[in-house]
Amino acid sequence: EPRVAGPYFARMALTRSLLGDHARSEEAARRAQAEAERCGDRATLGMAHYVLAVEGFTTGDAIGGLAHAHEAVALMEQAGDRAWLAQACWISGFLQYQLGEFDAAIASEMRMAAIAESLGDQGQQASALWTSALCHVGRGDVVAAEEAARRALDLSPDPSNRATAEALLAMAVAEAGDAERAIPLLEEAERKHEPFRLRQAGVTISLAAAYREAGRIAEARARAEAKARAEAKARAVAEAKAEARLAAAKEAKVAAATDT
Fold first, then answer.
1. Per-residue model confidence as pLDDT tens digits over 127-161
2. What is the per-residue pLDDT across 208-220, written as a single tens digit (0 to 9) for each?
3. If DSSP states are collapsed to H, E and C, what string results for the chain?
């Protein structure tokens, strides 16, 4: 039944994306897409495109990801699902930021913030605001970046959004040229992002840059090298898990063939 299978595979795709299992996330999203198209389920089809947009962001395919994000926005508008429309606007803005389209990115995030406010969802509002702060930092508008980050901090209902809002405040300070004041703020933000490794990567990069600007070259190099080692370890763990899953699947297939 496609109306059951579609949402199931969409949720599976989102879960695998959050776990960093990109290949299987895309596979599940494509399956959700096919099931949704069979029954005209626009909301599920929009969710599938949302996951594919997130995959574009995390794997470096910003152009392809943005195409999926635009599809997700259009489909969620048609479906009338405002909560997921807000999420689609968020990933649109993030991908536009990756492509250097800062004005468009900020507009996408402000649309998300307005939808979230109408829904009473402070978490989504905070996410939109700290993402817009990142966009303002990208184009060098320090005052606007600080304002957006402080608003996000005021609204943030959870540790993840609060930590990221604090990090964006620190990045704005660094962008203003005050590396020495930014360094302890970024160090604290990096520590708070320990449970949120994907976001922590951006904080670590900003911290290394602040060390460099402050003339603390050895610390900048050490931070960059530690980041590279952590990424290599994460890749090795992910590859080992993938190999273990493949081996288990092969063993199960052999066992099933033996039983028959």
1. 999 999 999 999 889 999 999 999 999 998 888 88
2. 888 888 888 998 8
3. CHHHHHHHHHHHHHHHHHCCCHHHHHHHHHHHHHHHHHHCCHHHHHHHHHHHHHHHHHHCCHHHHHHHHHHHHHHHHHHCCHHHHHHHHHHHHHHHHHCCCHHHHHHHHHHHHHHHHHHCCHHHHHHHHHHHHHHHHHCCCHHHHHHHHHHHHHHCCCHHHHHHHHHHHHHHHHHCCCHHHHHHHHHHHHHHCCCCHHHHHHHHHHHHHHHHHCCCHHHHHHHHHHHHHHHHHHHHHHHHHHHHHHHHHHHHHHHHHHHC
